[in-house]
Automatic annotation (TrEMBL):
One of its GO terms (molecular function) is tRNA-dihydrouridine20 synthase activity. Keywords: Flavoprotein, FMN, NADP, Oxidoreductase, RNA-binding, tRNA processing, tRNA-binding. It holds the Pfam family Dus. The lineage of its organism: Bacteria, Pseudomonadati, Pseudomonadota, Gammaproteobacteria, Lysobacterales. Belongs to the Dus family. DusA subfamily. The keyword Glycoprotein does not apply. It catalyses: 5,6-dihydrouridine(20a) in tRNA + NADP(+) = uridine(20a) in tRNA + NADPH + H(+); 5,6-dihydrouridine(20) in tRNA + NADP(+) = uridine(20) in tRNA + NADPH + H(+); 5,6-dihydrouridine(20) in tRNA + NAD(+) = uridine(20) in tRNA + NADH + H(+); 5,6-dihydrouridine(20a) in tRNA + NAD(+) = uridine(20a) in tRNA + NADH + H(+). Gene3D superfamilies: 1.20.120.1460, Aldolase class I. This is tRNA-dihydrouridine(20/20a) synthase. It comes from Lysobacter koreensis. FMN binds at P21, M22, M23, Q74, K143, H175, N215, G216, G217, G237, R238.
Length: 351
């Protein structure tokens, strides 16, 4: 019997581009930066366990800046009543979507019997999703793998999805590889099990009324664009974090608008940074998310170096970001010049 996920109609243009939930990375400071780069992307929090949402420090765990919307709260857990309570709290806090993690393979998560283990418990996931839908008025979605360990049958994966869809879930983010629960670290579990995008594509063909978002190993604009031929959207994780300018290029390519330079984008973050510093946030908590902005560019290493060395010092403020920009711009204006080296020495206090 299908529950009513009445609020589940996410506009299709909001599905196309999203940034993956990433523990320790996609905190509110990161999301504000990503929003600036990609006005049309759907953003995800780090996974927060339902218990933490209920009992923990919500001002920290559910921190949300109004510019982040649309933004989803990702929950971990496997107890329907707790997940429902956490989903309600998340929706009341202003999150636009509540996403259930069925893909994390870490030992800690396995010990708690949630994350990727849930791929083997479709009935429990269905109960959880149904309870969450009942408890809140925003879309409830699921992020999953293709299976765990040696699950190699597409029909098993599709049966998992069907069961959850019957509980009312209309959107699935598919990290298109298995999770191997024994012997691989979470990092290896993002690299070693082979990607099988075809399963996600086939699911979309066979279940066209479900929104299917493809995730895993998407590293370039062309890769991402190709997925849109077969599914409703592409979710980028590591590439978006390490090469945030890719997010901007994708947003402009898919939704229009004018391509800004990296420096323009960074300077647009200044008002936010200054408000945060005035509230007592340390620059290093913001600047750590900016380090990849000039990756692969002339001066990119210097940008990283100036920011990462300086942001830890007491009193570090926006002027450090300007110094990093000045060094980077010096590199790009005068290729391989001594001026750039001198600028770098100046900023690192060696001159
Ligand atoms: C540092 C890090 C933390 C992650 N934390 C989460 C998480 O909290 N929840 C989740 O569903 N996936 C998490 N993931 C997995 C990503 O959401 C994504 O599924 C995976 O990285 C594959 O996408 P990619 O190849 O584009 O990075 C994490 C990945 C990384 C790199």
């Amino acid at each position: 019997m299908r529950a009513v996920n009445a609020a589940s109609a996410i506009p299709p243009e909001q599905l196309r581009l999203s940034v993956a939930p990433m523990m320790d990375w996609t905190d509110t400071q990161c999301r504000v930066f990503h929003r600036l780069l990609a006005p049309h992307a759907r953003l995800y929090t780090e996974m927060v366990h339902a218990n933490a949402v209920i009992h923990g420090d919500r001002s920290h765990l559910l921190a949300l800046d109004p510019v982040e919307h649309p933004v989803a709260l990702q929950l971990g857990g496997s107890e329907p009543a707790l997940l429902a309570q956490a989903a309600r709290i998340g929706a009341e806090h202003g999150f636009d979507e509540i996403n259930l993690n069925c893909g994390c393979p870490s030992d800690r998560v396995q010990a708690g019997r949630f994350g990727a283990c849930l791929m083997r418990e479709p009935a429990l996931v269905a109960d959880s999703v149904a309870a969450m839908i009942d408890a809140c008025n925003v879309p409830v979605t699921v992020k999953c793998r293709l299976g765990v360990d040696d699950d190699e049958h597409y029909e098993v994966f599709r049966a998992f999805i069907d069961r959850i869809a019957d509980a009312g879930c209309r959107m699935f983010v598919v990290h298109a590889r298995n999770a191997w629960l024994k012997g691989l670290s979470p990092k290896e579990n993002r690299e070693i099990p082979p990607l099988r995008y075809e399963w996600a594509y086939q699911l979309k063909r066979e279940r066209p009324d479900l929104a299917i978002i493809v995730n895993g190993g998407i590293a370039t604009l062309d890769d991402a664009t190709e997925h849109l031929q077969h599914a409703d959207g592409a979710m980028l994780g590591r590439a978006a974090y390490h090469d945030p300018y890719l997010l901007h290029r994708l947003d402009v390519a898919w939704f229009g608008g004018e391509l800004q330079t990296r420096s323009q984008l960074l300077r647009a973050l200044r008002p936010h940074v200054e408000v945060q510093l005035a509230r007592g946030v340390y620059l290093k908590h913001i600047s750590r998310h900016l380090l990849g902005l000039f990756g692969g560019q002339r001066g990119g290493r210097a940008f990283r170096q100036v920011l990462s060395e300086g942001a830890h010092k007491p009193g570090a403020d926006w002027s450090l970001v300007e110094q990093a920009l000045a060094v980077t711009e010096a590199f790009s204006e005068v290729p391989s010049s001594a001026r750039a080296d001198a600028a770098l020495r100046l900023c690192s206090g060696q001159a």
